[in-house]
Specification:
Blueprint lengths: L4 E9 L6 E10 L4 E5 L6 H8 L7 E5 L4 E4 L11 H11 L4 H14 L15 H14 L4 E5 L7 H16 L3 E5 L12 E6 L2 E5 L2 H4 L7 E7 L8 H6 L2 E6 L2 E7 L3 H9 L6 E8 L6
Parallel strand pairs: 3-7, 3-8, 5-6, 6-7
Antiparallel strand pairs: 1-2, 1-4, 8-9, 10-12, 10-13, 11-12
Helix pairs in contact: 2-3, 2-4, 3-4
Keywords: ATP-binding, Nucleotide-binding, Transport
GO molecular function: ATP binding
Protein name: ATP-binding cassette domain-containing protein
C-alpha cells in the first residue's frame, strides 16, 4: 500500500569507500502507528530518519511506498527569505490551498504553537525556539500520512512541547504514522506501538515501555464513556486508546497516555451522535490518582 513505508535491506554510507552508517535495515511503518527510535549519538538515527523522509537515498536496498511525508529536524534552517507567516503561507499554497486559506492556516498554526507574535518576523531573526515552532508548523500544514520528528521537541517551551505531543496523537488517530527520536526517555511514554534501537548501524526491535516495564509507561488517563444506542466506538478512539474494555454493551473503559487524552475526549464528544463521558481520572504508573 502507498501509505505504508517499507525499508528492505537498506544500507547507507557516505562515499564509495566510506564506512557503513547503516546496513541491513528492515522496517515497515504502517498507518496509525507511533514508532520511537533510540540509540547513542552517532549511531545513525538521524540518517535513518532522513531516509524515511526521503531526504537521503539509500546506498543499497529499497524504500517502498510513498506516503505524504513531513519532516522536522532538530535544527531548522532559518536563513530563508520569508517572514514566519509568509513562509507557512507559501508552503500552504504549494499544498493546494488558495491564498486566503493558506494565510488562515498559517495564522492558526502559529497561534497553536504560541508563535503568533512572530508572524511578521523575518525567519533569519527568529530565536532557536521560535524557529523550531515554525518547523513544527510547516510539517503539520500538509496533514502528513507520515510525520518524521528528529529531536523536534528541542528548543520548544513547555506549552509548545505539550502541543506537539497532542499533534502526534491527532496524526495517529487520523490514521497517519509517526516516527520520532527524542532525548527524553519519557517522551510519549506508553503511547508507542514499537521501539527500535539503532546500534552499530543495525536496527534492533525492542518491546514498548508499557509492555516491558509498567513504571516506564508514564501517567495515563482512564476515561469511562457511554455510547449512543447501537453506536460503535469511533475508529479514531480505538486508535488513540492504549486499551479499550467494554464492561457492558455500549459502555467503554478507555486507557490512554496523558499526552493523548485531549484527542480522545475530543473524538468522543465530537462524534455524531456524541458519546457521554461518564468519568475521567488521571493515574500514575503505580496506580495512584
Amino acid at each position: 500500500m502507498e501509505r505504508d513505508l517499507q525499508l528492505d535491506n537498506v544500507g547507507r554510507r557516505y562515499g564509495l569507500r566510506g564506512p557503513w552508517v547503516l546496513r541491513g535495515i528492515h522496517l515497515t511503518l504502517t498507518p496509525g502507528t507511533l514508532t520511537r527510535m533510540e540509540g547513542p549519538n552517532g549511531t545513525g538515527k538521524s540518517t535513518l530518519l532522513r531516509i524515511l523522509a526521503r531526504l537521503d537515498a539509500p546506498s543499497e536496498g529499497k524504500v517502498k511506498g510513498r506516503p505524504r511525508t513531513a519532516y522536522v529536524p532538530e535544527r531548522f534552517p532559518s536563513a530563508l527569505p520569508f517572514t514566519a507567516a509568509g513562509y507557512l503561507t507559501h508552503l500552504a499554497t504549494i499544498h493546494g490551498l488558495t491564498r486566503a486559506s493558506a494565510q488562515r492556516a498559517a495564522a492558526d498554526t502559529l497561534e497553536r504553537f504560541g508563535a503568533a507574535v512572530h508572524a511578521h518576523t523575518p525567519m533569519a531573526q527568529l530565536s532557536k525556539g521560535s524557529s523550531q515552532k515554525v518547523a513544527v508548523a510547516q510539517a503539520l500544514l500538509a496533514e502528513p500520512e507520515l510525520l518524521v520528528l528528529d529531536e523536534a521537541w528541542t528548543g520548544l517551551d513547555a506549552a509548545a512541547r505539550a502541543e506537539l505531543e497532542r499533534a502526534v496523537a491527532e496524526r495517529t488517530a487520523a490514521g497517519g504514522a509517526v516516527v520520532f527520536v527524542d532525548h527524553d526517555p519519557q517522551r510519549l511514554a506508553g503511547a508507542t506501538d514499537a521501539v527500535y534501537a539503532v546500534r552499530e548501524g543495525r536496527l534492533e526491535r525492542r518491546t514498548t515501555p508499557m509492555a516491558s516495564d509498567p513504571a516506564a509507561a508514564g501517567p495515563h488517563v482512564v476515561v469511562e464513556a457511554q455510547g449512543p444506542a447501537g453506536g460503535r466506538l469511533p475508529a479514531d478512539a480505538h486508535r488513540t486508546a492504549t486499551t479499550a474494555e467494554e464492561p457492558e454493551p455500549g459502555a467503554y473503559r478507555l486507557t490512554v497516555p496523558a499526552s493523548h487524552s485531549d484527542v480522545l475526549l475530543r473524538t468522543l464528544l465530537s462524534a455524531r451522535p456524541p458519546w457521554h463521558v461518564v468519568s475521567v481520572r488521571h493515574e500514575t504508573p503505580e496506580g495512584g490518582r
